[in-house]
Design goal:
By secondary structure, the protein is of the alpha/beta class. The chain has one domain: Alpha-Beta Barrel (TIM Barrel). It is 44% helix and 15% strand. Helix 6 runs parallel beside helix 10 and helix 8 crosses helix 10. It is globular, with a radius of gyration of 20 Å.
């Protein structure tokens, strides 16, 4: 990827070139559960899989996937409803941990099947076990938003070098992240490419609502999803799009809050029993004062500011150390 960062508001010449295919490699559906309040049936998205597919295609994506949190249920639902889809492949976003520091990492795995999903879920408690198995299976995997969950439990250099040892594919543009974070990853990967070459850069909107979907994506040649992913594996791809920014991100957060309250008030939903619906409604009522008091705004703001703080604090130091490995930590 060109580190000069061209003006991405202009439509590039390659956009209409049929050789180049586009895919948003990071997006969510209603099958992404919000794990911190699972008992109340909160979701990390309220997009139906068929809506994601339709909007992605309308916005020019040649291939489509879903990367729900530790779930392929949305992918399976879409394929069960549309078994003849040839431009769709099964993926998921896996949460895994370093066993010694409990540092949390999100990893996208692409073009998997149900057997592989089950094994991924069994192994994900330990990133080293997961990584070894993914390599054994030949599964394409990308390290997502690398410093979003960074807790400084080990040195930035040690953490980054561990990630480089395990991964060849990195998400360098995430539509929901602060631009400072994305640019740090871009700059780090530019240095890595100069020194070792073998690294692939991908992008996705990380859309939890439909508005930002397919606004950030990966571009590569390939007539089929597997050919497209093979190009990514070999590093023959590039990224495009712009971050949504804090204002749009906050709007998305509140849209999901409103969609949640709409879902718990829908007594016709056949997915849950009356008892479950009553429990969801009671818990939603308990959470309403916190939403009204601005808790979603506060949490979103703190997370966004943390991304900027971490990127600025470790960015220049880490770039210098990666550029000059002899420099002491």
């Amino acid at each position: 990827m060109d580190s000069s960062r061209p003006d991405e508001t202009e439509i590039p010449a390659w956009f209409s070139d049929v050789r180049f295919k586009k895919a948003d490699l990071h997006c969510h559906s209603v099958y992404s559960t919000f794990k911190y309040f699972r008992i109340a049936n909160t979701r990390d998205s309220y997009n139906r899989p068929e809506e994601v597919y339709r909007v992605a295609k309308e916005r020019g994506m040649d291939f489509v996937t879903l990367t729900d949190h530790d779930s392929i249920d949305g992918c399976l639902y879409l394929l069960n409803q549309n078994p003849d889809l040839e431009d769709f492949f099964i993926s998921e976003e896996v949460e895994t941990w370093f066993p010694d520091t409990r540092q949390r990492i999100h990893v996208n795995v692409f073009d998997i099947d149900e057997r592989q999903h089950r094994e991924i879920q069994r192994l994900r408690e330990n990133i080293y076990d997961l990584h070894a198995w993914l390599r054994q299976e030949g599964i394409l995997a990308s390290a997502n938003h690398m410093f979003q969950n960074y807790r400084m439990r080990n040195s930035p250099r040690q953490y980054f070098e561990e990630m480089l040892r395990m991964f060849d594919v990195f998400e360098v543009k995430n539509g929901a992240m602060a631009s400072q974070h994305n640019r740090l990853i871009e700059d780090l990967m530019a240095v890595v490419r100069e020194k070792r070459g073998a690294v692939s850069l991908v992008a996705g909107s990380d859309a939890h609502t439909l508005a930002p979907l397919a606004k950030v994506y990966t571009v590569a040649e390939g007539a089929t999803p597997r050919e497209f992913l093979a190009r990514i594996r070999s590093g023959e791809c590039f990224v495009w799009g712009s971050e949504m920014g804090f204002r749009v991100l906050l709007s998305d957060v509140y849209q999901m809050v409103f969609r949640y309250y709409g879902s718990v008030l829908d007594w016709r939903n056949p997915e849950f029993t009356r008892g479950e619906k009553a429990r969801h409604l009671a818990l939603a009522a308990m959470g309403a004062p916190f939403s009204a008091a601005g808790v979603p705004f506060a949490l979103t703001s703190l997370n966004y500011l943390k991304q900027i703080f971490v990127s600025r604090r470790i960015g220049q130091e880490l770039l210098e150390k990666i550029a000059d490995p002899e420099k002491p930590s």
